[in-house]
Amino acid sequence: MRRLIVIRLAAAALLAASATAALAATADDFKAALAKAEAASKAAAALKNQWTTTADALKAAQTAAAAGKFDEAVKDAQRAEALANASIAQAKEQAATWQQAVIH
Amino acid sequence: MASTIRVRAVAGSDNTEVQALVQHPMDSGFIKDAKGDLIPPHYIEVIEFQHAGKAVFTAYWGPAVSKDPYIKFSFKGGKTGDDLNISWVDNKGQSDSLVGKIQ
Amino acid sequence: MTAKHRTAAINGTVFFAIAVAAIGAQAARAANTVDPQADFKAFRAYFTKRFPKVPLSDFVNGPYSMDAGLRKQWIEIDAFPPYQFALDKGKQMFETPFPNGKTYADCFANKGIGIRQNYPLFDTKSGEVITLDVALNQCRQQNGQPPLDYTKDDMAALTAYMAYTSRGKPFDIKIPDDPRARAAYQKGEEYFFSRRGQLNFSCASCHVQSAGQHIRTEVLAPALGLVAALPIYRSEWGGMGTTSRRLTSCNSQVRAVPLKPEDEQYRDVEYYLSYMSNGLPISGPGARP
Q: A10 in a domain, yes or no?
């Protein structure tokens, strides 16, 4: 009975491991995520509204990728893309609403 | 070359009030430059104010004192026209001195 | 329709109406022509009303006009100002001729003495705002000299001396009758009131909304008279700083990537703030915590 449980547990562990391995990010995944992040960052810079944290996240992504840590690199790239998009939204929103803040 | 020491000493009825500004980088040795290298320590170790041959104020500075230190103190005695001798020595052995006049 | 539904319907209609009205008002304001004089009056009134005990000319002393304890320390420091070394260096730089024999005095009205209060000015030839720092580098360029770094000590020393020769003189910023000048002014106003950086602060967040209040240990200076004391010796920096140094560091402090020193947007906001301080006396070079 115990042997059966152990075998079942071992099989489950193997399945889990292979499943995780299938979900792990590859260098190509990183390249795609980085491209999206850099495009967003470029758009933010064109609006003269880049955040320092966007730049930091991009750098972190590059550092992680260089060390082969693609899971981390993809996460950082996605974070950079999100930050860049937020800064673009901020610039657009502010362009439309800054007048309300002016002292009249 | 211009002195690193600026001093203003004003004699009162009993005391003389002294203010001084000393030009010195006062590098602690803990700060890094733009390249990431440590800026070597360079700070005044001792500064002394003398009046009538006697030390009226001695300070043992060091890396905790910031750049271009300002000092203010008063001492008993001193009258208008008297000399006030100021000198400092730093950890690199550099020094400067100035003879100021009490106003 | 039930009572709940009716209330919801009414609320919805009211909300919609208000939203439409708000958008309408916004559009109307945006379509208005730029009126610097009206802005000036409103700006002045806001600060004098909010800080009735502060004499008008005292606003140029920034945090010291807002906090008595800080003011006492400043008066003591000012008896032996930390910018003294920069001032002496600036005077020497100003009086030293270029290799071609000309001096800075040859580039400016009144030999460059007592003119700081006229800057920034709008140059109708180039269609741009020219700050004093930019004018100094233009002078250097005209005389075959490399430009000075806008954030560093040499530029700060030079402008410290020029500010010192203008001490007490009231700001006299002109907006010529030129649509480009009015546009530059308005762009400066937009920059000042727009939120930026991940921390989502505008210049106004600190210098209007929170003027006189604390940010960590610092007391925030009011926007009125904000640029009158530049360049400043800042204890935090352990050295001098120009307008460029202040603007770029403000940007990074709210996690916005700074623009290049003397970028058009920086010059426009300095133009705007200086105009808002018209009539207030130059107090530079200044000392700040």
A: no
